[in-house]
Amino acid sequence: MGELLYLYGLIPTKEAAAREPFPSYKGFDGEHSLYPITIDQVTAVVSKLDADAYSEEVIKEKMEQDMSWLQEKAFHHHETVAALYEEFTIIPLKFCTIYKSKESLQAAIELNKEKLENSLTLLQGNEEWNVKIYCDDKELKKGISETNESVKAKKEEISHLSPGRQFFEKKKIDQLIERELELHKNKVCEEIHDKLKELSLYDSVKKNWSKDVTGAAEQMAWNSVFLLPSLQITKFVNEIEELQQKLENKGWKFEVTGPWPPYHFSSFA
Q1: Listed range (133-147, 167-181, 211-225) with the worst mean pLDDT
Q2: Three-class SS of residue 61?
Q3: CA distances for 225 relative to 57, 95, 106, 196, 201, angstroms
Q4: Which GO terms describe its biological process (predicted)?
């Protein structure tokens, strides 16, 4: 019976050495515990897996056909990485990152040694935060209909037409409002993002989530992540709170969360 290694993350060897004995966490299979493997200045945090029970074919079948297993294991991975993040600077690994042996893991780390050491240095003293911006499209459309110059000009243009012509032209106004709505949303969000990124080291704009995913009544208009120096966190959060107070009556809502394990600003390929 062979063994595999489930990789949770990579941490600085100095930090791992300072925490002896290594913190006790249950592994992916619920039986083995996590333990460190030191490779020069980088330490891998892993747990053992049975090669037959967790082969690539078995895991693929589980992920496709056993939703309860997938949810349980994904939750375990998320919670374990989050717990490690509380104690160490970490490059978090994606769900189900598995190596066939200690030697294959070591070879991969040595191949990316300089990149990994630079990433760990970058992450020390910095935090990943997420900002989601939501908007009430109905409320925003109302404002655009009343104040947008293009819409007002179109309304004035059709006001002199016959009732029959006006009926068809009003549909064009609805289409114009939809276009102006998207332009307005992007403009507001881009301006906010540009202002917030002045406080960050790095930033990234992610794909918006649907209402089915968020469960929110409002539409998500923007989804971004920032790598922030710890000293800038308070100012960053205060900035968003001020934006919320300024814009909430105009149909905007902000959600700021963090710190998160830095999935978006570290990688291990």
Answers
A1: 167-181
A2: helix
A3: 34, 20, 31, 10, 11
A4: gas vesicle organization
> Which residues touch 161 (CB under 8 Å, ≥6 apart)?
169
- Which residue would you say has higher pLDDT here, 163 or 38? 38
Neighbours of 92 (CB within 10 A): 28
Q: For 137-171, how does the pLDDT look when each residue is reduced to its tens digit (9 = 90+)?
A: 888 887 777 677 676 666 666 666 666 666 666 66
Cα–Cα distance measured from residue 18 to residue 247, given in angstroms and rounded to the nearest whole number: 47
DSSP 206: -
d(CA 219, CA 44): 40
Q: Domain segments of the chain: what residues?
A: 3-121, 127-260
The residue whose two tokens read 């997938």 is 70
**In the block, residue with structure tokens 């009343």:** 146
